[in-house]
Amino acid sequence: MPVELNILAWGAVLLLVHIFAAAHLKTRQYGARWNVGARDETLPPLRPMAGRIVRAQANFQETFPIAIVALIGVVVADRTSEWTTLGGWIWLGARVLYLPLYGLGVPVVRTLVFAVSLAGLAMVLTPLFRG
Fold it and tell me: Has residue 1 got a pLDDT over 70?
């Protein structure tokens, strides 16, 4: 199996981590009854850390489809290489770091880590644009 698909599978696990981290913090604030309910009521704003984790989840969900296209794309096009593998691992590693950095409210470094993740995706996407 191509390593890029393994990276993608770990990306799916990371998405689950984002989802459960956000749900845990929301449930801690709003209660178990909210969690199992219809969630129709108007709620107070999330506490800062919970809000940041929810935003980190949204950010991951916005960029994960790009990673899916890139990683599956190089496999389908038979364009995998050490370069695409390295780019995939860079993307995944940066995304793993991004969640706690965002959750803890670390400025600047969080943005730099996001930029590194995009550079990793660019490494994976580049072979798809070569004829």
Answer: yes
| Whether the model pTM is above 0.90 | yes
Per-residue pLDDT tens over the stretch 58-72: 999 999 999 999 999
**Distance, CA of 46 to CA of 90 (rounded, Å):** 31
Q: Give the residue extent of every domain in the chain.
A: 3-129
66 Cα distance to chain centroid: 11
CA proximity to 121, closest of 84, 96, 93: 84
Q: In the chain, how many H helices and how many E strands?
A: 5, 0
CA 96-102-103 angle, 5° bins: 95
Architecture of domain 3-129: Up-down Bundle (1.20)
Alpha helix (H) residue ranges in the chain: 3-30, 32-36, 48-76, 82-103, 109-129
> Which amino acid type is present at position 92?
L
Torsion, Cα of 30, 32, 33, 39 (10° steps): 60
Q: What is the mean pLDDT of the chain?
A: 97
Task: Please give the pLDDT value at position 35.
Answer: 92
